[in-house]
Amino acid sequence: MVNAGCNSFMENYDDLLEYQEDILTPKDINDLNWCQNNDIDSICIPNLRNKDDIINVRNILGNKKKNQIFSKIQNSESLLNFEEIAKNSDGIIIARGYLTLYVAAENLFTLQAQMIKYCHEYLKPVFVQQNVLDSMVSSLLPSFCEITEISNLVYNFVDNIMLSEETSCGDHPLEAVKTLKRICLEAEQQKENELFNNFQQLTSTNITVQSCILECAKKAAGELQAKAIIVFTSRVL
């Protein structure tokens, strides 16, 4: 699944792999102890490489599982080990800005879609960060491409969309947040309307058993990208 896709995307970037022994500094360990003693709900691990980094953090926290661990996918090793990282995390943050250093531009969209799909299949919350409203770092208005991208993320059931430079060093942080909220709410409403209309079509009083089966078969074939639909009948042809 995702891991195989990541391997194919990353085959030309092996020289960028990082092999440092431990991502945690003494300050990190002190910070984790502080989090444990102050009832912090969620902790984000940046620059992790594999599931061992998550296990190390949980061990420092006492492995009581009261802290949710969100893993930030932002380097080549985290891409290569995405499946094991996702399985051992409470949630995933896709740091798109950093991934442009490791993945060919034409593959980024597919890679993001694969990671989102994998998180949905294993019931892991997935956040998307960076390159969301970059134009609003200096402008009061978002670009059309940004509006479309945010709407697509909502349509793909991303759990959270995170701003970065827009609020940390941008000229219009409050407007960026308000703009993101408006776009998300509108996209959510449109998605709800679409789902409701589809449900109405399936539950219409004029629908027949045959048409319902055909509709489900068509949807399944589309989602599975099937090349053909085989229909079994009682007739001998």
Automatic annotation (TrEMBL):
It is an enzyme of class 2 (transferase). Its cofactor is K(+). It comes from the Eukaryota. Keywords: ATP-binding, Glycolysis, Kinase, Magnesium, Metal-binding, Nucleotide-binding, Pyruvate, Transferase. Its EC number is 2.7.1.40. One of its GO terms (molecular function) is magnesium ion binding. The keyword Lyase does not apply. Pathway: Carbohydrate degradation; glycolysis; pyruvate from D-glyceraldehyde 3-phosphate: step 5/5. Residues 22-177 form the Pyruvate kinase barrel domain. InterPro entries: Pyr_Knase, Pyrv/PenolPyrv_kinase-like_dom, Pyrv_kinase-like_dom_sf, Pyrv_Knase_brl, Pyrv_Knase_C_sf. It catalyses: pyruvate + ATP = phosphoenolpyruvate + ADP + H(+). Belongs to the pyruvate kinase family. This is Pyruvate kinase. It comes from Ichthyophthirius multifiliis.
